[in-house]
Structures are given as structure tokens and as C-alpha cells.
Design a protein that fits this description.
The strands form two sheets. Strands 1, 2, 3, 4, 5, 6 and 7 form a seven-stranded mixed sheet that branches. It contains nine helices and ten strands. β8 and β9 form a beta hairpin. The chain folds into two domains: 169 residues, P-loop containing nucleotide triphosphate hydrolases (Rossmann fold), CATH 3.40.50.300; 110 residues, K homology (KH) domain (GMP Synthetase, Chain A, domain 3, 2-Layer Sandwich). It is α/β, with parallel strands linked by helices.
Length: 300
């Protein structure tokens, strides 16, 4: 019988490169907020994949970008702090790059420094021609000895097993750190906050910048009249300005209702029971530089 393997795998890359889409593909459950926006992921989310002979724990990190305030600095610090502690690094880049850009260079230098086993994933290969891809592979192979270079499209299921097989091959023998029924170590409260934020980002498009954060104030489990389990969830969406508050609420409260409805449907699917969700919007102008809030996004 094959020896059981386990390990921690950090997914790292620039903002908007497809990390959250990738972790959701690999884990097979929706644990990371996906929105086509810069800086969607703020904390290091762990996703767990249980296979016949291995347990792989994924850490999805905030994207690397130029910091503008305390929150950004904390996010970048979180990303880089995961590299030395991981068994394998999944470094994800875009196939559309012509060379190693500034952000990718910073990440590459951190990987070199750590000497970690690294698998290079080149995402969005559907957007380029083969010659360009081969050229990019050549450029990166001259920089570091990767365990493997895998061209992918993170939306396509067929790449899941290819990536997982390659990771498993590079893991050392080890125990299962988590119960095999688990797929994330996030609490239901965190998953609820993450879901509401994802829906807000998707539905608001570019009308409200990334200055929102969600806080679940109450989360109670009870039985309804039909004796079914139901979660009562009360959450506040914090934004930076009064004008943003108006946009989030929308005309006659329509936008807030849409965000709440979409989040509730997702939560019911993920939690496996009914959800009664109430949401409010409040302005908190300085939260991006507020230590007590920003510290929530530090890696635990």
C-alpha cells in the first residue's frame, strides 16, 4: 500500500491572476470569493483536498500589488509570510505576459530566497498562441528549477487532476492534519462574510471601489415551525463614504436586496440548510487604516 502523504501548499501570484478560481477548482467547493476585481482575497484561506493517498491543504493568498494603505501592507505581508512555511508553492502567472513583470519578479525573488519546491502554473492559455507560451516557459525555466511547469485554464475541470497529481508527487509522507470530511478551516461566520462580500463586489461592478468589508454581528441556529434547522444571520456591510452607502442600498433598497438574496442562496447551498439573512449598510471612513479591523486580515 502506498504511503500516505500530506502537506501545505501556498498559491501565490499577482492580483487578478486567477488564484481564487484555481483554489475553488482544486478544492471542489466554493471557499474563496470569486469576483473579477483586484484584491478580492484579503486573508490566507485554507482549502483542504482529501485524496485516497494524500491530504493537501491549500493556502490562497492575497494578490501582490502596490500597497496604498495599512490593509494593503498587511495583505502583502500575509502573502509572503506563507512561502517559507509551505511544503510546495504554486506560483501562478498569466500566459499573456511577454516577460517577467515587476510583481512576478518580486514573488520569484521570494521563492528563490525560500528555496521551496515550486510548481509554475501558467493561467489563461486560451488567450495566446503556442509560440508565445513556449517563449514564456523558456524565460521562467532559466530563472528557477521548477518541479513542473503546467499551462492551464483555471476554469477548466480537466486541469484539476493534473495539478493535484503533480502536487501529490512532490509531497512527503505525513499525517492527515484535518478530518477527511472537512474542506476548509474557515468558520461558518467567515464563510458567510466572504459570500456576502463576493456578491457585493459582483453586483456593484465598478460603482464602489474595494473599500467594503463585512461583519457578521449575529449567527444563531434555530428550528423553524416545520422543525427544519435555519440560520438567522445579521450582517453589516461597511463602506468608506455616504455616496457608497447610497449605491450599495440602491433605489428603494433594490441593490441591497439583490446582494442579500444572492448571498443567501449561496450560503444555503454551502451550509446545507436554510438561511434567514438580514443586512445593513454603515459608513466607517477610516477602516482601511484602522488597526483593529486590519488585524483581522493577518494570517492566523
Amino acid at each position: 500500500m502506498e504511503e500516505f502523504k500530506s502537506g501545505f501548499v501556498t498559491i501565490i501570484g499577482r492580483t487578478n491572476v486567477g488564484k481564487s478560481t484555481l483554489i475553488n477548482l482544486l478544492v471542489g467547493e466554493k471557499i474563496a470569493a470569486i469576483a473579477n476585481k483586484v484584491q478580492t482575497t484579503r486573508t490566507a484561506i485554507k482549502g483542504i483536498v482529501n485524496r485516497e493517498n494524500s491530504q493537501i491543504i491549500f493556502i490562497d493568498t492575497p494578490g501582490i500589488h502596490k500597497p496604498k494603505h495599512k490593509l494593503n501592507e498587511t495583505m502583502i505581508e500575509t502573502s509572503f509570510s506563507t512561502i517559507p512555511d509551505s511544503d510546495i508553492v504554486l506560483f501562478i502567472i498569466e500566459a499573456t505576459s511577454d516577460d517577467i513583470g515587476r510583481g512576478d519578479r518580486i514573488i520569484l525573488d521570494k521563492i528563490k530566497e525560500s528555496k521551496r519546491k515550486t510548481i509554475l502554473l501558467i493561467n489563461k492559455i486560451d488567450l495566446i498562441k503556442r509560440e508565445k507560451l513556449l517563449n514564456l516557459i523558456d524565460i521562467y525555466n532559466k530563472e528557477y528549477k521548477f518541479e513542473a511547469v503546467i499551462p492551464i485554464s483555471a476554469y477548466q475541470e480537466k486541469y484539476r487532476e493534473i495539478i493535484l497529481d503533480e502536487i501529490e508527487k512532490n509531497l512527503k509522507p505525513g499525517p492527515a492534519y484535518y478530518d477527511i470530511e472537512e474542506y476548509t478551516d474557515q468558520t461558518l461566520r467567515q464563510l458567510a462574510e466572504e459570500t456576502i462580500r463576493e456578491k457585493a463586489l459582483k453586483l456593484l461592478q465598478d460603482e464602489v471601489p474595494h473599500g467594503i468589508y463585512i461583519e457578521v454581528e449575529k449567527m444563531n441556529l434555530r428550528k423553524n415551525k416545520q422543525e427544519e434547522d435555519i440560520y438567522d444571520i445579521e450582517a453589516t456591510i461597511y463602506c468608506l463614504r455616504e455616496s457608497h452607502k447610497g449605491i450599495i442600498i440602491g433605489k428603494n433598497g433594490e441593490m441591497l436586496k439583490r446582494i442579500g438574496r444572492a448571498a443567501r442562496i449561496d450560503m444555503e447551498k454551502n451550509f446545507g440548510l436554510k438561511v434567514n439573512l438580514k443586512t445593513w449598510v454603515k459608513v466607517k471612513q477610516d477602516w482601511l487604516d484602522n488597526d483593529s479591523i486590519v488585524n483581522k486580515f493577518k494570517i492566523k
